[in-house]
Design brief:
- By secondary structure, the protein is α+β, with helices and mostly antiparallel strands.
- The protein has two domains: 5-174, C8orf32 fold; 179-266, Tetratricopeptide repeat domain (Serine Threonine Protein Phosphatase 5, Tetratricopeptide repeat).
- The protein has helices at 5-10, 18-27, 36-52, 59-73, 91-97, 102-115, 152-163, 179-196, 200-213, 218-230, 234-247, 251-266, and strands at residues 77-78, 99-100, 120-123, 130-133, 139-142, 148-150.
- The strands form two sheets. Strands 3-4-5-6 form a four-stranded antiparallel β-sheet. Strands 1-2 form a two-stranded parallel sheet.
- Strand 3 (120-123) and strand 4 form a beta hairpin.
- Helix 11 runs antiparallel to helix 12 (251-266).
- The termini are far apart.
Length: 267
Amino acid sequence: MIYDLDELGLLDDEDIELDFAALALSALDHEGLDLAPYHDLIDEIADRLEEVSSEAGTLAQRGEALKQVLGDEYGFIGDVDGYDAPVNADMIRVLDRRQGLPVSLSILYVAAARRMGWSAWALNTPGHVLVRLGQEQFMLLDPFHGGKALSQAGLEAMVRQFVGPGAEVQPEYLDPIPNRIVLVRLLTNQASRAAQGGDNDRALAIHERMVRIAPEFPDVWLALAELQVGLGDKDGARASLHAMLEVTRDKERRRTATELLERLAAG
């Protein structure tokens, strides 16, 4: 599957193949690179997972198959030493190096599981993204740590580590993230690292990618508008805010957009 950005923006969310979509986004930064070897690698992983999981009838067996193939055999693991390196949110480099961020590695796990016909989602858990395998009955996998299964106690410990000593696991932590939001989260990592490095042109380009692939999500328009304001592009910010108002009925978000438009008019 080969995507372009405008096609991604039009697809139904459930029709997006996450790893191929992330690869297409990565290709924008690698002009002229042949993507065939990366598509072949993704297909190879799927073939191997199908072989390993041929008799995997339980969630535990499926989770172990994912860990064996992606974590043990192919060696995908979190980049602990260079966590903030931009390559960790670049799917081409993730596939090259077999290292990445929780979100980029989760994309590989979720996409591979879905090719087996399994229910799988990335989760918006505090600290870092986890993978949920299964629907009513489910298990959690931690791709950043080689795909190991995460127990309830392990989840509670992670939440307390990142939220605070008294924090509890909230129901929304186990809610699936829409495919587009997973991709937006991947791009947000790229944009934040560009901004931190003072590369405002790249940060702007990445935010523009976000609104192309997820135009119905108001927060991506707001983030773009705020960056445009910071760069002195008032006309661009106004256009982004008006686009935001077209896609949201949420009162708080509309108020935020309206107030920002008023400040731009006054300034």
